[in-house]
Predict the 3D structure of the following.
Amino acid sequence: MTATNDLQANNRRLVRKLLVGVVCMFGFGFALVPLYDVICDITGLNGRTNDVAIVEAPEGMEAQTERTVRVTFVTRGNQNIPWEFEPEKRMIDVHPGEIVAVNFRAKNTTNAPMVGQMIPSLAPGQAATHFKKTQCFCFDQQPLAGGAEESMPMIFYLDPAIPEHVREVTLSYTLFDITDRVDDPAAAVAAR
């Protein structure tokens, strides 16, 4: 009987250890996404850009006219969102330290009001911490009435400290349909 009791006690301890391991793995998996987001925001890893608006460019910043970085804009819709979304210019040449304004065009091709959100990504990753937006439509949700079209500005500059080897930067925006997350899309359009 003692061997059987010992075996059962060992099995209970093993089951408890396995359950604790499962709970720890679940907790780690749950915390991994926010942890990854924090690391990407701090380091610029994975092309994440800083989405905090900067009121103005740093005082005394001068454009480095002897240096040019080509900035390419890429747009795409996700979840088969029925919008047209594109930059007015696909690429521009920018001097680090130069403040630049570009416009993007969005059109809701449906008859119903919709709300979209544009999420940015930047490549190469080393440029993400040097790409500074002072104004961007990506900071806010974009409600559009059915059939409506809007020109949306983005103002940015490249920090003069951007590494010398970075000669091309690609800024991508993915458009998401978030209409179902808004209480009243028609009211959001009217409030605009």
Notes: The mean pLDDT is 84. The radius of gyration is 24 Å. The chain has two domains: 1-43, 50-191.
